[in-house]
Design brief:
single chain
Length: about 120
């Protein structure tokens, strides 16, 4: 575990990576496999972000993926009784909100709220 303070270069690199991950999640609304790439990157680089304001973005992205997956599965399981369409619709709106809120905060150099 690295206990030295993060350099400006490291912060810039992590911010760029977080931007790429938000983009991958956004594209996953059309090409789902990009979410898998994004979550792998989140877990691979999360430790590098530990102790920085960007750590909250990596956590936000990871929670967005897992909750999104849960609601996608619930929607799929209830699709046959038509409730699944509503679940998917609400989940898509929620997913877009999470991506937009995270991306905007990242752009403004703000951490995400702890949730």
């Amino acid at each position: 575990m690295n206990m030295e303070p993060a350099s400006g270069e490291k912060i810039a690199s992590l911010k760029t990576l977080a931007t790429v991950i938000y983009a991958l999640y956004a594209v996953s609304l059309f090409i789902g496999i990009t979410a898998v790439v994004a979550i792998v990157l989140n877990y691979l680089k999360r430790e590098d972000a530990r102790g920085t304001w960007l750590e909250s973005h990596f956590g936000w992205q990871i929670r967005t993926f897992w909750w999104g997956l849960l609601w996608f599965v619930v929607g799929a399981a209830t699709w046959i009784i038509l409730i699944g369409w509503l679940v998917w619709g609400v989940a898509c709106v929620w997913f877009v909100y999470r991506i937009a809120k995270g991306w905007l905060n990242l752009n403004d150099n703000k951490p995400m709220p702890v949730q």
